[in-house]
Structures are given as C-alpha cells and as structure tokens.
C-alpha cells in the first residue's frame, strides 16, 4: 500500500468552469479516507482525477513516491469499485474476480489461489459459478470489491458503491467493508482507501478521517468525532449530524454577563465561552445541535420559548420542530423521558446545554467558539 497526496490539485473544464479549486489532501498508508459533500461538490471528480479517468489542469497527484499526473489509469496502482458494480455480464463470478490477473498473464495456479483467497475473505465461495444476473445487489457489490482486492493495488477507490442498495443492505455492507479494511490491516496488508459518498452516515461510520467538500473546496478534514464536536465552520456544522444543527442569526454581547440575543429573547453564554470571546461582540450565527437542547416548561429561565409546529415520532426518540420568532428549531427528545408527547400548538421552552453552543462569524461563517481551545 502507499500514501496518496494531492497538492494544489485543480480541475477546469474547456468551458471555463472551475470544478476543483487547488485542493491539498494527504491520505496515509492504510488509512480509510471518506470524501463527502452535497451533489456537485466535486468529490467524484476528485476521485476520478486520482484514478486518471479525469485529467487534472493544475497541481500534482502522488501515489507513493510517483507523480501520476500523466500515467494512464491501468499503471497507477489503483483499483476502483463503481456505483453500478461494472461486472462483466457474460462471465461467471470466478472469471470476473480473476479478470485483471488473467490480463497480466499470471500463472493459472496463482490466479486460482488468489480467487479462492478473495472469495473466502468476502464469503462468496458459493457464488463463484454464478453469473452476475443471478446475484443480489449485496452479492454483486461483494464481487466488485473482490475484483478490486485481488489486484493488491496501492490505493482502493470507491465511488458511491452502496447507493443502489436498500437501507438495510447498505447498513450491512458498511460493516462488511469496514471489517474487511480492519482485517487486512491486522493481517499486515493494509489497504489505503478513498471512499466517495453523499451519505453522512456512511462517512461517519466508515472513515478513519473525513474530507468534507463544498463547491470544489475542502471545508475540513478530521476524524468523525472532531467534525461533530468541533466543526470548523457553519457549513460543516450543518452538514454533519442528523438532524442537522440549528443555526440562526443572533447577537453576542460580552459586557458584564455574556449573553446571546435571538429575536427578543436572551440566554446566557457558558462562562468558558464567554471568557474566550470577551473581545467579541455583535452579530453572529448561533448553532446548537438538536440533541443538545433540553425540553422545558414555558418560562424556564435561560431558555428560548416557542410553539411546537411539528412532531416526528420515531419510537426511541421524538423530533420536535419549534417555532421561535419565525425560525424553526429542531430538538431531539428521548421518548422515554416524556410523560406526555407534546402536540402541535403547545407552548414549550428549549434550554441549550451551555458548553455545547457554537458561535460562527456572521460573514466568514468560521467557528469562533473554538477560539482558545
């Protein structure tokens, strides 16, 4: 396996449209890196440039000690798993798995051993004599992974490989792929992985680190816990987490008792945050995750009063949508904590957990509440 480096990589199309804006990213040897972001953020374009399926118009891509900008895909030492599996329909599973080795004219015994080894690792031994049309979606995906694995590439590339599967099968395959990555590392043959998805659940549960992208820019690269707890900006804060973070316009005042004003309501700022932002005052964006809002009776001190507009009962928890001064806050409440489920039109209050508050610069949207940490 090898380290992957992108240095000031750009992609500009003939029309003049710039899709990727000089990004820098290093994926360590044996690391599972996830590229995530909304549609059109250039995550798949970035993956295709690594693979050599898209030419780069600026910067440098290195795999190990080689600059691969001008190296054709087949000689880059990569293997790619596509969204549509891309299996050869007329070939049995065993021949799909071994196709790359047969192209390289490897000895038959080596090919047979490698096919058996990969099929055992992925638990698809009983599928070797089947054609792709005889496979379920999950089985076809495992064959596609096996075809990449058998090549022993320097870098594995996954382009939204689970998007065609139903929710239950996606959850199953997430576990299988991450378990495979851990098993290979434990066996002394670590796999360097770049995995593209638009699904933040896949990103959070699979990646060693996650690269969040927006409109061809990298917004933050970090491990899942850091992205959730310490988002660098309002975009990352709103993109990572389900339901998404509540982010609204507010005013921060740090004279005397530090406080935040939202509409005509005021809540005090956590003492530590107030000290770190003692020189800051004026318009900000206030952020709080739905899981970090406590449901309280109307009139509770240091809480925001509002009216329930929507109740989403999910069994183990309830998503409450609460209108506060024309803005909707979402609060996640464990259902077993309630004696009665609130109804549309009920008056309630929401009390933010003080140290869980995020404040973002109104204009740059950088997370100013991380200052001094």
UniProtKB/TrEMBL annotation:
UniProt cross-references to Gene3D superfamilies, sorted A to Z: 2.40.50.100, Nucleic acid-binding proteins, P-loop containing nucleotide triphosphate hydrolases
Any one GO molecular-function label of the UniProt entry: ATP binding
Compartment list: Cell inner membrane
Membrane topology: Peripheral membrane protein
Principal subcellular localisation of the protein: membrane
Domain ABC transporter: residue ranges: 4-240
Keyword vocabulary terms for this entry: ATP-binding, Nucleotide-binding, Transport
Pfam families in the cross-refs: ABC_tran (PF00005), TOBE_2 (PF08402)
Any one GO cellular component localisation term in the record: ATP-binding cassette (ABC) transporter complex, substrate-binding subunit-containing
Family annotation (InterPro entries): AAA+_ATPase (IPR003593), ABC_transporter-like_ATP-bd (IPR003439), ABC_transporter-like_CS (IPR017871), ABC_transpr_MalK/UgpC-like (IPR047641), Mo/tungstate-bd_C_term_dom (IPR008995), NA-bd_OB-fold (IPR012340), P-loop_NTPase (IPR027417), Transp-assoc_OB_typ2 (IPR013611)
Family named by the database record: Belongs to the ABC transporter superfamily.
Protein name as annotated: Oligogalacturonide transport system ATP-binding protein
């Amino acid at each position: 396996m090898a380290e992957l480096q992108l240095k000031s990589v750009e992609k500009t199309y003939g029309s003049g449209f710039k899709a990727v804006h000089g990004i820098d990213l290093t994926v360590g040897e044996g690391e599972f890196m996830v590229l995530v972001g909304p549609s059109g953020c250039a995550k798949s374009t970035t993956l295709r440039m690594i693979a050599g399926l898209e030419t780069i118009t600026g910067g440098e891509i290195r795999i190990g000690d080689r600059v691969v900008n001008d190296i054709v895909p087949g000689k880059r030492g990569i293997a790619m798993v596509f969204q549509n599996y891309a299996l050869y329909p007329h070939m049995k599973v065993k021949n799909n798995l071994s196709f790359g080795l047969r192209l390289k004219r490897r000895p038959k015994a080596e090919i047979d051993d490698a096919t058996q080894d990969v099929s055992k690792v992925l638990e698809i031994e009983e599928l070797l004599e089947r054609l792709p049309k005889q496979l379920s979606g999950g089985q076809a995906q495992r064959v596609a992974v096996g075809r990449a694995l058998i090549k022993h590439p320097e870098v594995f590339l996954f382009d939204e490989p689970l998007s065609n599967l139903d929710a239950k099968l996606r959850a199953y395959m997430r576990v299988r792929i991450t378990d495979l990555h851990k098993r290979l590392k434990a066996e002394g043959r670590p796999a360097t992985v770049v995995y593209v998805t638009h699904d933040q659940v896949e990103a959070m549960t699979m990646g060693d680190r996650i690269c969040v992208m927006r409109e061809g820019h990298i917004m933050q690269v970090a491990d899942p816990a850091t992205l959730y707890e310490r988002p660098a900006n309002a975009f990352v804060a709103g993109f990572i987490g389900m339901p998404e973070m509540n982010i609204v316009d507010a005013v921060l005042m740090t004279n005397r008792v530090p406080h935040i004003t939202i509409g005509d309501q005021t809540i005090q700022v956590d003492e530590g945050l107030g000290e770190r932002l003692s020189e800051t005052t004026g318009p900000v964006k206030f952020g709080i995750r739905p899981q970090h809002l406590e449901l309280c009776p109307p009139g509770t001190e240091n809480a925001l009063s509002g009216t329930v507009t929507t109740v989403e009962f999910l069994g183990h928890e309830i998503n409450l949508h609460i209108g506060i001064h024309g803005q909707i806050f979402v609060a996640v409440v464990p259902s077993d904590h309630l004696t009665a489920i609130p109804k549309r039109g009920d008056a309630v209050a929401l009390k933010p957990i003080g140290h869980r508050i995020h404040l973002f610069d109104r204009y740059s949207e950088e997370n100013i509440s991380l200052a001094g940490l």
